[in-house]
Design brief:
The chain is mainly α and 97 residues long. It has one domain. Helix 1 crosses helix 3 and helix 3 crosses helix 5. The longest helix has 11 residues.
Length: 97
């Protein structure tokens, strides 16, 4: 995925969905940022981000979502929205032995 633009809109959304780090750090990993937007973003946040990155970026993010960010409801919603039915298993963390 290509880097996200560092513009006022995305810099405003970032602290609302990833409250535990600064906006620039949040935007540095596009897939992770979009996974947080898909989980914690409001409808307005999602529309604003989509205006800047496009729907295909959201599709790419759900297909490569890191484990532990999306909740079950968000995982199901976004997968169905992009035609992944039946919904695939959620991403899982792999812990070393």
């Amino acid at each position: 995925m290509k880097p996200l633009p560092y513009n006022a809109d995305l810099l405003a959304v970032a602290p609302r969905v990833i409250w535990f780090e600064d906006a620039e750090t949040a935007l540095a990993d596009p897939v992770r940022f979009l996974a947080y937007v898909m989980t914690y973003g409001t409808a307005e946040d999602i529309a604003l981000v989509q205006k800047h990155v496009g729907e295909e970026a959201f599709r790419e993010a759900i297909e490569n979502a890191p484990p532990g960010i999306l909740d079950k409801r968000s995982w199901a919603y976004w997968n169905v929205r992009f035609g992944h039915y039946p919904v695939p298993p959620m991403p899982r963390r792999i812990l070393p032995d």
